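Supplementary notes (optional reading)

For those who missed the lab, this is the record we used. Protein: Glycerol dehydrogenase. Length: 377 residues.
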Amino acid sequence: MRKALICPTKYVQGEDELLNLGYFVQTYGKSALLIAHPDDVKRVKAQLDETEKNFNITFVESGFGGQCSRQEVARLQELAKEKNCDCTIGLGGGKAIDTAKCVAEGDNLIIVPTIAATDAPTSHSAVLYTPDGAFDDYAYFKQSPSVILIDTQVVANAPTRFLVSGMGDALSTYFEARANVQSFTKVNAGLPCGFREGKCPEAKGTNAAFVLAKACYESLMEDGVKAKMASDMNVVTPALENIIETNIFLSGLGFESGGLAAAHAIHDGLTILEGTHGYFHGEKVAFGTLCQLALENAPMEEIIEVLDFCDAIGLPMCLEDIGVSTVSDEELLEVAEKACIPEESIYAMPFPITVESVAASIKTADEIGKKYKAGLL
């Protein structure tokens, strides 16, 4: 059996770690293309200026337009070439990080998340959009980022909703990896580089990836509530440090080398409902996790444990919590149809999937969540 695991070369997190960014740039040369939203640059400008001076390196401002499009990637690659940049930095949230991945194409890449809202920073994949924001394609590169550098104080200063959303994304990691183990499904770690180029070689998840996915869930249960309280006060505590690592590193390696399943596919389906558009990826994945548990007929004790966690930190537990106050059976079938398109991860579930069974699981999860919130479970 062919197995695969992919991970960054170096992962570093700590308070004031941004002051060491220049050191990592220096390992590649003297200059770095800095891809970041202007607001994110402004928030950490003092640290950037200090590390630039201390390590005698130069950040080349990119004028990042905010969208990870082929056109923006081409422009930034030309800028990097023109300015003789020795490496690429993606600083901020998902769009800047994905754009940096595409510009670097797997070489000399430093990722500096300023929020812990998703598990994307560690992965060797990116999502491309059209200039007006519509989905374009997925891209996969020959390796994960060279360095992940996280300043925990910067993350602590960000709005708590980002951290909670990251926990919602991480919440699915163990359950989706478990489904992949049971179904022997191929995982993203074995995918080729490029924009959907070539035939995808089969690669199953490793034992190590599943251990990381399980540790991800255990960390959420142990430290999630305490980390949220620390974030509310903008302070760094051991619990917050653990959850930052959980949201970004454990969940990142867990999803890419352990596999996705129904939770993320149902998230994708839910995006057709207009009410969900104001909610973060991880918030919708959290409800998708409850749907996956309903789909696989998980023990009620397990579902209640997940609901208790969602309730404690403020993650969605029913459709109303992601902006859908009313939904028809026909609309649920449309959601399920999108979740069940051939390329979706829902087929990693270890049993036959139908559109009807997926729609039923969403409806059931919604009812369970509503009953829980009403104190009837």
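If you only remember one thing from this example: The longest helix spans residues 207-232.
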